[in-house]
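hey
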């Protein structure tokens, strides 16, 4: 087997995938955390623990990104992105053959970013009013899959969603539930996903939305 890179986002859906993996021995596989850590809430669904979980199940190497997912402003982000460890880890992430990502909701009561304590419900409502329907790796987009020109999208420490979707990487989105339908549809319209793993409730709502 040739060497392969697996990039990871974060979230409950990826945690469940990691737990369901059968034990393998794939030492040439490299698991890479693609976005900074959330650092709040349940550590098991955060990037560093997910990278470890996947790597242990696959018998693979893993690389974590020791930085926060969001920082205060674009200037701080720019500074962190040039830090050696961050730069080297993200260089590995850009080589990913496959990327597993969640699709986040902007509904405050269902937002993982709100539950993690990164944003308040009021702040998430503001992001929603700016036109966001969902996010992948923290990058928020609208119903037509356009990445929004909002401050939060300039404060992410991690791989660029635009660059990832333009690469040869196969992006696997994992998200379910009717509440995620708008976010999933926006992600599909934006070309951010190559493969979608979902459930019937979300699929039916996405199909209805794509027809209307």
């Amino acid at each position: 087997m040739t060497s392969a890179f697996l990039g990871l986002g974060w979230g409950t859906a990826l945690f469940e995938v990691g737990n369901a993996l059968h034990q393998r021995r794939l030492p040439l596989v490299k698991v890479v955390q693609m976005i900074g850590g959330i650092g709040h809430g349940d550590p098991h669904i955060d990037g560093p623990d997910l990278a470890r979980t996947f790597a242990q199940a696959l018998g693979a190497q893993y690389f974590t990104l020791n930085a926060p997912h969001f920082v205060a402003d674009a200037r701080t982000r720019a500074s962190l992105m040039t830090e050696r460890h961050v730069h080297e880890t993200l260089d590995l992430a850009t080589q990913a053959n496959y990327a597993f990502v969640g699709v986040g909701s902007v509904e405050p009561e269902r937002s993982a970013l709100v539950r993690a304590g990164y944003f308040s419900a009021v702040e998430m409502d503001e992001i929603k009013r700016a036109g966001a329907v969902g996010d992948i790796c923290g990058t928020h987009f609208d119903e037509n899959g356009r990445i929004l020109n909002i401050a939060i999208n300039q404060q992410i420490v991690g791989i660029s969603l635009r660059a990832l979707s333009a690469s040869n990487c196969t992006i696997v989105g994992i998200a379910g539930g009717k509440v995620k339908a708008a976010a999933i549809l926006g992600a599909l319209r934006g070309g951010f996903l190559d493969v979608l793993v979902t459930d019937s409730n979300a699929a039916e709502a996405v199909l209805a939305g794509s027809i209307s």
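The mean pLDDT is 94. Strands lie at 4-8, 29-33, 61-63, 98-102, 104-105, 134-136, 139-141, 170-174, 195-197.
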